[in-house]
Design goal:
Blueprint: H1 4-31, H2 33-39, H3 45-50, H4 56-79, H5 83-107, H6 114-134, H7 139-174, H8 178-181
């Protein structure tokens, strides 16, 4: 069984990281859209072009869904000793943090998500060491959990972004997000959607 501190560190570290993401990333993406389009690999441009249109409240809703999943797997790991789903998402979270550091290097500028990534990574590495020392997982289990967690996270990311884009389109038709994006019924300077 894993220490409770380690198990519950996953949702805690996620909250720290995603608070930075929700608070600072949407406005940074809108301000730096052109820079990103110039500097990201062509395969990532479609994702980059879609992100600035997501209002902060939509980012927060997506983070809330992810937090609910992390709380669920942490509760299962803590209460029922179901470690594999927790380990899968723990490893995926670490990959997510490392990707943010990599994005910073690719774009060649500081991104709002890097500070919390650098803060969380030492704790994540500590957690990996604790799991390695306490539970005798085979290399196959580590690889399977890491791969399964990353695939699950990628699919969840894609689904949540598709849902988010639909929410924004629906909100624009209803006039809810016009002031945020400068499009739709609220337009620039309106208080609609704030």
């Amino acid at each position: 069984m894993l220490p409770a501190l380690l198990v519950w560190s996953l949702p805690l570290l996620f909250v720290i990281h995603d608070a930075e993401e929700v608070l600072f990333l949407p406005s940074w993406l809108r301000r730096n859209r052109e820079l990103l389009v110039r500097r990201v690999p062509s395969a990532m441009r479609r994702v980059v072009l879609a992100l600035p249109d997501l209002p902060r409240r939509v980012f927060a809703a997506m983070a809330g869904e992810e937090l609910a999943l992390l709380l669920l797997v942490s509760a299962l790991a803590s209460g029922a000793d179901l470690i594999h789903p927790w380990l899968a998402l723990y490893l995926a979270f670490g990959v997510h943090l490392l990707l943010h550091v990599g994005q910073c290097l690719v774009v060649r500028c500081w991104l709002p998500v890097v500070a919390s990534s650098l803060f969380c990574l030492p704790f994540w590495f500590w957690g990996v060491a604790v799991v390695r020392d306490r539970i005798l997982f085979s290399l196959d289990e580590w690889l399977f959990c890491g791969l399964a967690g990353c695939v699950f996270a990628a699919v969840n990311f894609g689904v949540m972004h598709a849902v988010a884009r639909r929410m924004v389109r629906f909100g624009r038709r209803a006039g809810a997000y016009g002031a945020i994006s400068g499009r739709g019924p609220g337009g620039q300077g309106s208080r609609v959607g704030r």
